Amino acid sequence: MELYQDRQALHALETAMEEASAARPQDLRELDAQREENPDWYRQGTMFGMTMYTDLFAGNLQGMIKRLPYLKEQEITYLHLMPLLKMPHPNNDGGYAVEDFNMVDPLLGSNEDLAALTKLLRKAGISLCLDFVMNHTADTHEWARRAKSGEPKYQKYYHCFSTREIPDRYEQTMPQVFPNTALGNFTWCEEMHQWVLTTFHPYQWDLNYGNPSVLIEMVKSMLLLANLGVEVLRIDAVPYIWKQLSTNCRNLPQVHTIVRMIRMVLECVCPAVILKGEVVMAPKELAAYFGTPEKPECHMLYNVSTMVNLWSALAARDTRLLKAQLDALNALPEHCWFVNYLRCHDDIGWGLDEDEEKRLGIDPQKHKEYLYRFYDGEFPGSWACGELYNYDPATGDARSCGTTASLCGIEKALAEKDSEAYRAAVSRDLFLHHAMAFLKGFPMLNCGDEIGQLNGWEYRGDPDRAHDSRNLHRTAFNWKNAEKRKMEDTLQSAIWDGLKMTREMRKNPCFAPGADVFTLNTGNPAVLAVHRRLDGQSLTAVFNFSEWAQTIFLEGNDAGKLPSQLTLAPYEIWVTKA
Question: Which of 43, 71, 482, 499 qualifies as a cystine partner to 513, CB 3.0-4.6 A?
């Protein structure tokens, strides 16, 4: 009522909730009860995640079932499958153009296959996360097709305009997401003879959440997925879902009201299910998406900013931006939680804190250009093999693509048959994974990173994929290479065994919920020190982000019995308990 003042719509929402509750399977009701007894289940130190495309990893959902032993071998407890709901082919933006929110894409399986997979995952102690694309549908979705045919009801599900007057007013204040590949925020629909708001791509129509019927239909689809056994809903592009003239149409107050309502619906109907928000925004915008203990929103967020700062610190051999960003995140209230990662399906967008850069005497534009040229291998002395995404020569803006192993130098070292560079690159890869896993939140691997999978340059020869350089790291999983994890002196065994140490580290009690996490001053910008403490126990890790030995001074710190001076070898991680 706060948002819509529509009592009839409220009753319709309540009816949808009652129907979903009545249809919830008994085993999921039992999971609800367990999770209500242990609401911090997703904050445990033993949480260890992986994200992947179903088709690239196993072909389809039935193939996923056959590959479960591989996930269990890694002690995975959280599996994020990339979008798998019905989508147009081939133009579907990696599955983010959805044709039907209630149906698995036939190329990947069926709803019954999804339910069978989630049941087996639960038995294995693995929670399934699926993307829920809130902002838009494919232009082939039934609602869009009926809007095109002239049905006013479904035209009101989108933002449709017969003239350019209103679209032009929106464009005055509304930034573009992909100015090089999807120019403008509106697309002309010849069938309707109307302009349609399409923030991301012309074939993705933005939904109109000013219409309560849209919210109710989307909630119904969320509850259907919950009843199929999905335990985590990653709500995609959530800052964009409310549109309002004379604003930038991002992070508006109504967005938070909607997320809060969704949280309430889930806690009433299926309390085992939690929300993970994709909020690719400045760090100052993040806290609002957790809400407050009294008015909670997302349970956890993707930690985009830490991912970016880790790669920045590695290339610059300078942890000052990373430390400042971690200090800001660690200062957030206790209920704020993050999924930490190095790579995912997306690019690395160099959205660093420009105010902090200026305070430190760093030129933001030159630093950004250095980073993306370093990671595409163009900067002198770079070890990386990557590629630019969405390069804009007018603004000097660009993002970076590539797998963790290739960006860390393994691909280049292998190509040049440089054994010393290879050893340094493997150390760099594991170093970055260990650093990511020590931070507040829980770690998530990108599938393939556990065996050091390299870039897939063959995408350039595929006309359906060549236009998007993110396909460089969206490659089929190499099962032949995965077998090498069992062989000594292979790249795969080195990365695989190194990540075992990461999982063992996180079994320490200082990774339990409620632990204090904070950085320490090292007196050396190349070195980051992070301290954890809980119930009288403490754990400190010191990370040398440089390929040269570094000396630090920890005098005057309050982190326990630590040496006042410490010298670390290249990419060394020094860990001590107290």
Answer: 43
Specify whether the CB–CB gap between 42 and 274 falls below 8 A: yes
Question: Under a CB-based contact definition with an 8 Å cutoff, are residues 526 and 550 in contact?
Answer: yes
How does the average pLDDT of the chain come out, rounded?
A: 95
What three-state secondary structure class fits 401? strand
Q: Which residue from 287, 279, 285 is spatially nearest to 235, judged by alpha carbons?
A: 279
Q: What is the pLDDT of residues 160-208, one digit of tens each?
A: 999 999 999 999 999 988 776 667 899 999 999 999 999 999 999 999 9
Indicate the helix (H) or strand (E) that contains 398.
Answer: strand 397-401
Task: Give the 3-state secondary structure of residue 203.
Answer: coil
- Helix/strand/coil (H, E, C) string of 285-333? HHHHHHECCCCECCCEEECHHHHHHHHHHHHHCCCHHHHHHHHHHHCCC
Nearest to 133 by CA among 125, 121, 141: 141
pLDDT of residue 423: 97
Cβ within 8 Å of residue 416, ≥6 positions away: none
Residue 74 CA to residue 53 CA, distance in Å, equals 18
Chain centre to alpha carbon of residue 103? 23
User: Catalytic annotation on 285?
Assistant: no
d(CA 47, CA 506): 9
Residue % of the chain over a pLDDT of 70: 98
Active site residue 236: yes
Distance separating alpha carbons of residues 454 and 472, to the nearest angstrom: 9
Answer for the pair 140, 190: CB distance below 8 angstroms, yes or no.
Answer: no
Q: Token match 């630019």: residue? A: 388
Q: What is the pLDDT of residue 322?
A: 98
Catalytic residue among 93, 278, 353, 411: 278
Tens of pLDDT along 35-77? 999 999 999 999 999 999 999 999 999 999 999 999 999 999 9
pLDDT at 180: 67
How far apart are alpha carbons 297 and 279 in whole angstroms? 13
User: Where does 124-279 have alpha helices with state H?
Assistant: 142-148, 152-155, 165-173, 212-227, 253-269
The single-letter code of the amino acid at 544 is N
Q: Which of 486, 460, 490 is CA-nearest to residue 475?
A: 460
pLDDT tens digits, residue range 322-360?
Answer: 999 999 999 998 889 999 999 999 999 999 999 999 999
Q: Which pLDDT tens digit goes with each residue over 81-137?
A: 999 999 999 889 989 999 999 999 999 999 999 999 999 999 999 999 999 999 999
Which residues, 6 or more positions from 34, have their beta carbon under 8 angstroms from its beta carbon? 41, 272
**Distance between CA atoms of residues 439 and 70, nearest Å:** 26
Question: 130 φ, ψ to 5°?
Answer: -125, 150
Q: Residue 576 forms beta bridges with which residues? A: 540
Give the phi and the psi of residue 313 in degrees, each rounded to 5.
Answer: -65, -35
Instruction: Find out whether 111 and 130 touch, Cβ atoms under 8 Å.
Output: no
Q: What is the pLDDT of residue 181?
A: 67
